[in-house]
């Protein structure tokens, strides 16, 4: 690879070495682009897949929780934000569902995403939401779930597998028809 | 003597007040300035360009902090606490984020050095081996005679 020309040492590369460096350089650039695209685009979570269990801080108190803390329980994960108008519309239905089914075997779990914590706490108080709330200020958990916006709702079974995915606001009727039948009798 | 001291003290006060006012004015945060430096996380654009409901809430939050007398840095820190570091349009110049500034500079230097080495090698390869300017080889023998005859014929 290295040779000496006259009295001055000159680094010379053979054609095959130069080709290797060029190909390696191109592959590195392409690899970086592909990595950038893959890590940028959130992959959609499919039914039956394990739901992400990223730990998140609690919205209304110190400390944090993860979905894995709810293992053995049915969890209706609801991504929302105080600035989101459809989230306001669906909140009463979620609270009502929690009142009817919430207990040792089922809970609604709110995840406030890309929102101001003060606004979010005011929202919880205004709509009288009694179910646990976590905070996802950067939207990382929402990305892990492959959400395309808010609100989105996911039913996760006691084994941590995704069973239902609802894009957009859920209504009482939707919860009664799509979620309630999956819950075991006396889930609450 | 006392009168001179009094005059000096008055002058010092008169000069110091505008300076401190200017310093306070420099530090005072403004929504227009902060909007250029932070993102609307939901829209993925500068807050300055965003009009979404989330952006409106973010702007209201900034306005509230300005009204509370917070400095620009304090407001940006508060936004980072709410939305994470991705809310900053420019990454911070410390820790791993420093690489965002260093990598382009290092890449530029490497490219410049590689270009300089390439040009140097190209010039060496194209140049004469003995260091002098090569003299072009002219025609010789019959060719030289024929060339001379042709030149004489055309009377150039």
Short description:
With 188 residues, chain A is an alpha/beta fold. Helices cover 35% and strands 22% of the residues of chain A.
Fold and architecture overview:
The complex is a heterodimer of chains A (188) and B (156). Chain A has two domains: 2-40, no CATH class; 56-182, Glutaredoxin (3-Layer(aba) Sandwich), CATH 3.40.30. Helix content of chain A is 35%, strand content 22%. Chain A has helices at 15-40, 85-101, 117-126, 140-144, 172-179, and strands spanning 2-5, 8-11, 56-57, 64-65, 74-80, 106-113, 133-136, 152-156, 162-167. In chain A, the strands form three sheets. A five-stranded mixed sheet of chain A has the order 7-6-5-8-9. Chain A has a two-stranded antiparallel sheet with strand order 1-2. Chain A has a two-stranded antiparallel sheet with strand order 3-4. Chain B is mostly helical. Among the domains of chain B are: 28-90, Helicase, Ruva Protein, domain 3 (Orthogonal Bundle), CATH 1.10.8.640; 92-122. Helices cover 63% and strands 3% of the residues of chain B. Chain B contains six helices and two strands; from the N terminus they run H-H-E-E-H-H-H-H. Chain B has a two-stranded antiparallel sheet. In chain B, strand 1 and strand 2 (45-46) form a beta hairpin. The model of chain B has no long low-confidence stretch (mean pLDDT 82). Chain A binds chain B through residues 10, 81-85, 114-119, 137-140, and chain B through 41-42, 52-54, 56-58, 61, 81-84, 86, 121, 124.
